[in-house]
Structures are given as C-alpha cells and as structure tokens.
Amino acid sequence: KLGIVDLHPSIWQTSPRLDILYENIEWQKTYKKIDWAYTPPHHEYPSMRGKPWPQKGTGRARHKSKFDPQWKGGYKVHGPKGPTSFFYVLPKEKRVEGLCTALTVKLHQNDVHFVDSLDLPTHQPTYLQELAEDRFWGPSVLFVDDTDIMPHNIMFASAKTEGFTLMPVYGLNVYSILKHTTLVLTIRALNKIEKKLLHALHSCDNPKDQPAPPDEP
Question: What segment(s) does the record annotate as region Disordered (predicted)?
Fold first, then answer.
C-alpha cells in the first residue's frame, strides 16, 4: 500500500438504486439485439395459382392453393417481417446514475482497488494469477486505464488468462463492472472517470435542465 486516495462523494457515496442498475443492464443486453425472423407473404410462395385438386367432382373441400395458411407448410398470416431492431437509447441521467451506483456498490463491497499503473515485470500469466490470489481479487478482474494502449506485459498475461479483462475509461459500463468480481483502476483512470462523471452530473445539456432566466425588473 502506497497511500490514501481521495474519492468524490457524489460518485462513490450515492444511494444504491437497484432499479437503475436493472435498466442499465437490460439496455446493454437489448440495444444490440436484432430479430431476424422472417416469414414470406403468400405472393412469394411458388405455384400459388396451382390448385391442389379440381374445384368440383372430387367430394373434397375447395381450396385455392396448397400454400394457404390452413395447410401445413403454408404461409403465415401477419407473420414476422424481419429484421427487427430493438435499439433504443437510455437517458443520459440514468446511464450516469447507473455508473455511480455500480461504483458505489463495488466500493462498499471492498471490490475496488487503485494502482499507480498496470505495468508488470513479466508477461507470464502465472505472475498475474498469483498476484490476484495474493491480493484476494477473486476469479475475475476488470483492469481500467485512461487509454486503450495498454502495457505490453499485462496485455499478453491477461490474454492467456480467463476472467481478466482490460478496458479503457471510455468503454467502462455497468454490465462489465457487475460482471467482474473486482475492479482495478489506475490513478489516471480514476481522475478521468471522476472528471467525466462530475461534468455529466452538473451539466445542463438539455434545454429542460437549463436554469430559468431571471425575472425582469
């Protein structure tokens, strides 16, 4: 242990909102989903004009085509006409609150650790595994740095170790935080996360969030 890190209470001491976490997770699991189900309409079936038997004289019911919906293998009335996208955007305030809630929960569970850098003396996966065991980081660890250009050794060590993930600050999300047992942040990543979240918490990007103009005298 090298020192004490000051954390901003607006980010790391928020009231836990399980409903906000649920909405963030459902959004991340749904917005990339595409339903490819497709049933062709009746005019796309072959031989639609061919009757299965003559109109009269057979004693059987009259049918226009063997691809009618009442037949097995026929077309489906008002069937799905994919691809159907389920994309939607979660409001910004819920995404920010979800990140603050996830970070707060991880901190109170003692599952957040801060390091100076992600540099390792070797690229062997066993060193990273022993390091995680000695520090009680658990089976899955999410390493976050302020840039997407990670140190060479930890890239090779984590690539050959299941459960260890490298992620830049701009990719940090609620689902990844809750999916991993431990969150390891560099000091540079911590400063960048706090700066961006504080700006989002206190910004007035939407017209409805703008303060009302002062009354004229």
Answer: 45-66
